[in-house]
Structure formats: structure tokens, C-alpha cells
Amino acid sequence: MSAxxxxxxxxxxxxxxxxxxxxxxxxxxxxxxxxxxxIEQGETLAVVGESGCGKSTLGRALLRSxxxxxxxxxxxxxxxxxxxxxxxxxxxxxFQMIFQDPYASLNPKMSIYExxxxxxxxxxxxxxxSIRPQVLDMLSAAGLDPSFAERYPHEFSGGQxxxxxxxxxxxxxxxxxxxxxxxxxxxxxxxxxxxKLFTALKQQFSLTYLFISHDLARVFGFADRIAVMYLxxxxxxxxxxxxYRAPAHPYTRALIAAAPSPNPHxxxxxxxxxxxGDIPSPANPPKGCRFxxxxxxxxxVCKTREPTMSDxxxxxxxxxxxxxxxxxxG
Amino acid sequence: MRRSATSVFLRRNAxxxxxxxxxxxxxxxxxxxxxxxPYGPAKIDLMARLAPPAWIDGGSxxxxxxxxxxxxxxxxxxxxxxxxxxSVGAGAVVIGALxxxxxxxxxxxxxxxxxxxxxxxxxxxxxxxxxxxxxxxxSTFGGGFTSVVVVVALATWVNYARVVxxxxxxxxxxxxxxxxxxxxxxxxxxxxxxILPNAFSSIIVVASFSMAQAILTExxxxxxGVGIGSATPSxxxxxxxxxxxxxxxxxxxAMPGVATALTVLAGNLCGDWLQDRIDPRLRK
Lengths: 330, 284
Known about the structure:
The complex is a heterodimer of chains A (about 325) and B (about 280).
Chain A: E1 7-17, E2 28-39, E3 44-48, H1 55-62, E4 70-75, E5 78-79, H2 85-91, E6 95-98, H3 112-122, H4 128-141, H5 158-170, E7 176-180, H6 188-205, E8 208-213, H7 216-220, E9 225-230, E10 233-239, H8 240-245, H9 250-258, E11 309-311, E12 317-319, H10 321-324
Parallel strand pairs in A: 3-8, 3-9, 6-7, 7-8
Antiparallel strand pairs in A: 1-2, 1-4, 4-5, 9-10, 10-12, 11-12
Chain B: H1 2-12, H2 14-31, H3 33-36, H4 74-110, H5 112-127, H6 130-141, H7 145-171, H8 175-183, H9 187-223, H10 235-243, H11 251-278
């Protein structure tokens, strides 16, 4: 452990406040609740969970794009929780974001060239002559023809736009990129191409990714480690291989069982592992274990006491009472 | 095939094109007034006082739209009057658009206390009886061209502020604005390069409506005698001059009145047309 981790989050909590009115007290929703997370240099960490579980908010909080209520975030050993103004803007050259919807994330009034030159200009590129080759190189690295530079976003397909968005995030040679469901707006055939692009850029620029996805099956082959989130909390984290082979948390098992299987005749998901019902409101999370309302193996203790993370070896950790006090036989 | 495409285009855009045509004719007449107008605007012909328009008994082709109480040719005065109306209108549109868009931009983007303060300003302006304010300002500071333009701009900036504020509030939540922030683009650059260009189309729409409003306001101020001064013919001044002759020389009032109405109508038609064409939800 020589180099500090790219990202270290401790007790990270993000709150959204509802508007207070005459008849209603102020409501506070914890979108991310007391999350500890470490991302090492060069790894790809996937964050998986249902919509509304706080995975996008977690990604934004790590990049200081959404206000942090409690806890702290360190970027390469430097506390960035309290950075603001100029210092924060300068720091942003080192961590970037890629958004879900490539139709919304590009300014329709700026050409591709202007869009890609923008980060360079903002971060102090004064030599205009040096910008052009950088932009054209980045376009080719992102798999786009450099002749596209003078065109505008509406002239491109979703996949091409997402390549532009990826090029914009990578052009400053950041260390860390948060990818917020960058595949879910794309066709399946394009998804694989874009995944390949992520892998290629990672090698070329030695990037570290936080890859947000709602599709566990999609990230198994791509991520080094996977964190499973439920209602603002990480319920299980571990290497992709461990999570696939030996998922410890009932929620992880349910997600794996819900994924379409390439060989449906062989591994039929056990009925016990299927999920019922909807994700509860994060404004009023269940007491005890937040998952107990939908857990197929729920016990009495789950309804009253919140489980803590248990270490399962090889960096795999899960928060479930089954791991500390197995159910009594019978 | 080609012909039918053209006719479909004409039918869909008929009113807008009509408005545009009228505005272009009025603008050309104003610019080339010395060549277009048969007489000078102040040329007095006492022998031909109160001559009716050409198509009425007693009228002659010498004065197509008749003459006023001093024998001045009304057609020529209407043409020269267009210079005042259009230049006041254009000046007021530019000043009003600059002030109003700036205030709307700040109000919509920053929200909170900034928005509350600026919206209060807008509401005060809206609540104030504008004509009284205009008469007060013009009689206090004098009624030159510049002060009339500024006062008329005062009447229209609120339109920009309100429309731009709403537009900015929707644009600022677009993902590309968040993307710009996460790249580290400073706020002033976000406003200039991301927010304003994407709110610009609505400014154009408001401008064409405001042009009409400004022309009308200028006419009203001139009619009330606080306009640019009666040496220069303005449609509002002509309306006022004709007031005392309404019984026996209606054309003194009717001609500048029709000119004002047509120009204002044309401006509004253009505004409607642009609005429909620019708003994708209304585009067929």
C-alpha cells in the first residue's frame, strides 16, 4: 500500500431536504447513508442497485457535485470535502463524470470541437494552437473520425454522442471517472462497443472508474470489484468473482437470480431468492435492516437491529445478520 | 411535387410572411423616405389645406392621402413618421432586451434571494401605471430621442425578464449544464456559453412582440405631447394634430392610425410566427 487510494470515503451521507410548509415538518431523505468506500488506483468499481438506491448520488457526492451532509471524501489522500470555488474547480480536472443520457449531456449550441476544447480552455490552456491536435487525437482515441469536429451534437447518433461525452471526460487525462449508467440509453449492440472503449481508454490513460449500473450481469465481466447498494447503503462489496461465485447478502443473491441466464435450463434460480414488492421509500426507510421488508430469509432480529459489515475475507464484506447469527434450525 | 411543397409552405406560414412583408415595406419606406415621399414632411401648401384623400370627391392625385390643416401631404408625413416609429421601436427593443435578459438570466439561474429581489423589481414595474411614469420622466428630463427610447424600453424590459427567467430555469437543469459544472467551467462562462445561447430563441420571440408594443407606446407618448417634439412628424403627433379636425378631416387621424395599427399587427404576426416555429412542441 504505497500510493494512497484514488478515492476514500468515510461515513459519507447525502441528504435531500423537502420543502418545509405550514402543515408539514421538513422532511429529510438520506439518499446516501453513512457509506465507507475505498477505490484503489487503476481498478474498476461497479456500483449496482435498483433505481432510487442512491448509487448516482453516491457517484456525484464523490465528485463533490452534490452537497455532502456528513462524512468526508479524500481524493488521492487529500481531503476534498470542504474545497470550494476556485480550488474545487481546479481539482475537477482530475476527476470527471460521464452521464447516462448522451442526448442531454452535450450542449446543442456547441460544436464537437468546442465541447472537447472547453475543458482544456477552462483549465488554463492558453496556447490555442496546442488545443486543436489534442482535440483531434482525443476524437480518434474515442473511436470517432476527426472530421466530425466541426459538427453539432444533433448530427450524431446516441452511441457517437456517448463517445463524445467520454472524450470530453478523458481529454484532461483525469485519474478518476464516474460513469453514471453510461450504457443504459444505448442499444445492446452499442453497449458492448462502448464497454470496449472504456477498457481501451483505461489502459491508454491508466484510469480508475466508478461504474454505476442497475444491471449486475453487465458489470461482472468488466468490473474488478462490485458494490451492491440498497436504500442508500452498501450491503455487500467484494471482487466480481467472489460476488458471482459466493454472494453473501440475500439482496445480492436476488439480483443475481434476477439476471437473465445464458443457460436457463441449467441454473434455475431458487424460488426463495426472488424479490417481492417494491423498494421502500427512502424518506421513511424500514427500521433495523433496511432490506427486511423484502428479504426472503428475514428473521426477528432484522426488524429491530441494523446489521453491521462482516468481513468474509479477500476484501468481501456484507451487512447481514445471517452472517453473524445464523438462523436456528427448525 | 415541388409546387405542392411550396404551396404547403406558403399556406402554413401565410400570416407570418404577411407580417414580415408589411414590416419590410415599412422599414424600406422609412429608410428611403426622401426618395419615396412625394413631398418633404414639413412642406406647407396653404392653398391645399385639408384636402381629402384622392379617392374622395374633392381629392386629387397630388395628395394621395390628403393634406392636414397646414396643407402638408399626409402620405409624406406618414412615411417620414415611420422613421421615428421604427427607430424608437428598434432602440427600445435593443435596450429592453439587454436589461431584461440580463435580469431574467440572473434571476432564473441563481434563484433564491437574487430571484426574490429581482422578481420584486419586476412586480413593482408591472404594478406601476406606466403612462404616468413615462409622463413624469419625460417632463422632468425632457423629451429628446434618447429619453423617449429609454422610457419606452422601460415599458418592455419586464417581458424579457419574465420569459428569460422561465427559460433559464428549465435550461439550467439540463444535463449539459451539470456536465459543464463537473468539468469545472466557471459560472460566468456557463451563463454565457451554455445558458444564454439555449435561451436565445425566446428572446427573439419576445423582441418581435416588444417591437410592436414599443411602436404603440411611442405613438401614445407623442399623442400625449411628451414624445420627440412636433417638428419631427411622428404617427402619435399626427394623431394628436388631427384630433381637433376629426369632424371635417377624419383622414388626418385615420391615416397615421392605420399606419400604426398595420405595423403593430405586422410585428405581432411575426412574433406569433416565430414562436410557433421556434417552440418544437408547436412545430408540426
